[in-house]
Please model this.
Amino acid sequence: MSFKNFLLRLAEIARFVARFFKEAFYPPYETKEILNQSFRFGNKSLFLITFTAFLAGIVFTKQSRPSLASFGAESWLPSLVSQAVVRSLGPLITGLICAGKLGSNIGAELGSMQVTEQIDAMEVSGTRPFAYLVVSRVMAAMLMLPLLVVYADIVALMGSYTMVYFINKSSFLLYFNEATASITYLDVFSSLIKSAFFGLSMGLIGCFAGYHSEKGTSGVGRAANTAVVVSMISIFVIDLISLQVTSLFR
Amino acid sequence: MMEATMTERETQQTDIDRSNRKKVVEIRDLHIAFGDRKVLDGVDLDLYEGENLVILGRSGSGKSVLIKCMVGLLRPDSGEIKVLGYDVKKLSAKDLNELRKQVGFSFQLSALYDSMTVRENLEFPIRRNLGIDQKEKLDEMVKKALEDVALGHTVDQKPVELSGGMKKRVGIARTLILQPKIMLYDEPTAGLDPVTSMELNQLIMEVRKMYKTSSIIITHDISCARQTADRIVALFDGKNKFEGTFDELKRNEAPELRSFFDYFNE
Model:
């Protein structure tokens, strides 16, 4: 890609993002389609998030316990796990699962609509396809990611407790008292805001890739692939920025 | 009988009386290029009220690009496009949407929304453009549009269950439901067998009669041109080089036209 093309691509992305904000905040609002997409997103990723978050909770607990035990700090295990899960593990797992599952879905769906001229057909019938297809999906991703993160946090802690129970039969109440005592409001809010940004970036990247998909089946494949790869990278970048910003408030 | 060449931009009068008809589309000196490739290189075109105008040309000659410019899907590099009195290049997004509601566009590959049923495909533009949500009213409009294209029985089917010809008809019904003033058909018979093509050509004629539309039909199918055209404009090398009725162009000895019409004669 030449430097000129790179700049043109950047301009195209900037225009796309600006159009999203313009159409998202001007009526008529796409409330019905946002709810519809939110249900689809939640429904599609719930099983995978449950499975991976539960396993992550087990694995993290199993790996952390020996290190803490060697310092005689085994009782700190619930607070270590809960902080790790709420601050980083939960949002990251959810973000990455959604980038893979929803990012590719959005990219491929809009990409195939683009190559079969379905988006053009909406455009020429004056039906505002950008609002219907893009705004609704991005808003749904922004709404659902924080909810899914909260869910993933709870499931991961359940996984962790399951591991702890098998090792030393601690009570559920004791574990959760210890786990929640060390979580601050800042942890929770920063995690929710961060995950809303994950949803925003994932939605925008998926929609941009699909909406600007090249013609042909390979174009659709590339759109889905770009949506996943760039979304995943963006999740790590946002995570890093969020860490820097949050540390200013600690 | 006169020759119908337009090498010096002289449009010759065909046997259709257009003197008293209003122009619904006016295109002047239209240019568009993709990279170094000039696709349209100074096209002039008029469409008159109630007329069926066929734009004939080989694949890649810029026919589809021309009608996409008319509805603002592509932006020309220079030139003027007026559709129903609106200057397309100068329209705001809102006004462009208003214009688009009055122009029906039938796509080459039908472009039906494959996640929706036929009913939902037809309801979609009504709900979004006219804000109609009452089931009875929607049912009535959908039923009428589908009956007009003789496909009333497909209402609950998905596009994947329809044949190519049926998809094209549903695509046309979806545009007719908004009662357009102008219809743009992009290769309506491409990929269809001769019988289905003939039926579709008849449908184009019926649509004009029922909905009082003016139409532009993009095609490289001579049978389609013969059946549907009041007037034909032939597009070669990005220019509208020839214009006339079907018979006038058929008699023309220009090599570009012969390649079309000789094949048809065979």
